[in-house]
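Quick one: structure tokens for this chain, please?
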Amino acid sequence: MAKIASAFFLVALLMSVMFLSSVGRQTPPPAVLSSEVALHEAEILIYLLPQAQDLRGQGMDIGWELQTSPKLNQEDFYTFWVVNSKRPIVQGSDTVGYFSVNKHTAEVWANDKEKTVTTAELKGIEKILRKAHHIDDAALRKFGSLRP
């Protein structure tokens, strides 16, 4: 019984010393590498496209489908076929467009216009995603030049 009490005392003493030696020590946080934007986060960006907001203002909505063609840069982008999902039955296409989200920067691209889609709301969400994924200026410089 005395051996168990002694062992317990030594463990408690060791833990106390370790705790006290770490108090007040300022250790820098470990370097955090950026992570990629997740598919569901890219879908949120697609849902907030200005074209989608325009359609919702008309009582309609959008739907999307992830495209997986080998011709697409799937390593760096999620590419979506975006459609009007509540359009009344009429002749013609219900395609809104093809849009890509850069997995490394959270930028949204209008593929047919070959340019980024920029609104205040999208910029705000991109900023939140970049912070959550530790996407810094270096990552933006490295991956911002990619095209879908």
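The chain has one domain: 39-143.
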